[in-house]
Amino acid sequence: MENADLPWSPSPDAPFLVADWTVDAAGNRLLRDGDEVRLEPKVMSVLVYLARHRGQVVSRNDLESGVWTGMVVGYDAVTNAVIKLRRALGDDSRAPRIIETISKQGYRLIADVGPVAEPVIGQSPTAETAGPVTTERSPSAATHRRRARVPTAGLLLLLLVVSLIAGYVFRSPPDAEEPVAESAAARLDRRAAVRQSDR
């Protein structure tokens, strides 16, 4: 079931691209703009299998026999692997950009797949990975960084609100100090008055 339409097919030893991610199958990791996402070996194997069959519908049975060769797996093994892949790749099952679910049939990798133009850190360049180095960043990388800032800004705002509330709740009320000070002064005045009358 190899995809004859692809001019290039991923090798398990060489990194390759899926959308704007560099896939390091040997290291079970995805790389993009300095970010690294680690995958379980079987989840990576599902990605490699789908990449080898890019554009084709791959059935659950094909994935089970291609990835879990000779093993008995539960029905959820494939589903869970695809869910983990989507989460790692930032894909959405309702509006897929990378992995599409074909109802009652299987899954299809719809993103672009190709060789890496520059070597992955920790790996020496090979004939497959050597090529011109590009420094242009994709628009989705900027979107990814903006999304990462939103939780940080929200967390800082929440911390500020909690600090203000705590400061308001735990401050001593200014009115409470004045009556105490007045009563102490009043007591001193009374004592002084009593002493003078005793003389």
Detailed description of the structure:
The protein has 199 residues and is of the alpha+beta class. The protein folds into 2 domains: 16-136, Arc Repressor Mutant, subunit A; 149-198. 46% of the residues lie in helices and 13% in strands. It contains 5 helices and 7 strands, in the order E-E-E-E-H-H-H-E-E-E-H-H. Strands 4-3-2-1-7 form a 5-stranded antiparallel β-sheet, with no helix packed on it. Strands 5-6 form a two-stranded antiparallel ribbon. Strand 2 and strand 3 form a beta hairpin. Helix 1 (41-52) crosses helix 3. It is rod-shaped and about 110 Å long. The N and C termini lie far apart (116 Å). The model is unreliable at 123-142 (pLDDT under 50).
Q: What is this structure, in a nutshell?
A:
The protein is of the alpha+beta class and 199 residues long. It has helices at residues 41-52, 60-67, 76-89, 139-170, 174-198; strands at 16-18, 21-24, 29-32, 35-38, 99-102, 106-109, 113-115.
Radius of gyration: 32 Å
* Termini gap: 116 Å
Into which percent range does the helicity of residues fall? 40-55%
Order of strands across the main sheet = 4-3-2-1-7
Number of DSSP helices? 5
**Helix/strand/pairing class, anyone?**
alpha+beta
Please, what is the average pLDDT? 77
Say which CATH homologous superfamily of the largest domain is assigned.
Answer: Winged helix-like DNA-binding domain superfamily/Winged helix DNA-binding domain
Counted up, domains total 2
CATH topology of the largest domain, which one? Arc Repressor Mutant, subunit A
> Uncertain spans, ≥5 residues at pLDDT below 50?
123-142
Order of helices and strands: EEEEHHHEEEHH
Count of strand segments: 7
Q: DSSP strand (E) fraction?
A: 5-15%
Tell me, what is the CATH class of the largest domain? Answer: Mainly Alpha
- Which architecture of the largest domain per CATH? Orthogonal Bundle
Largest sheet: 5 strands, antiparallel
Q: What's the shape?
A: rod-shaped
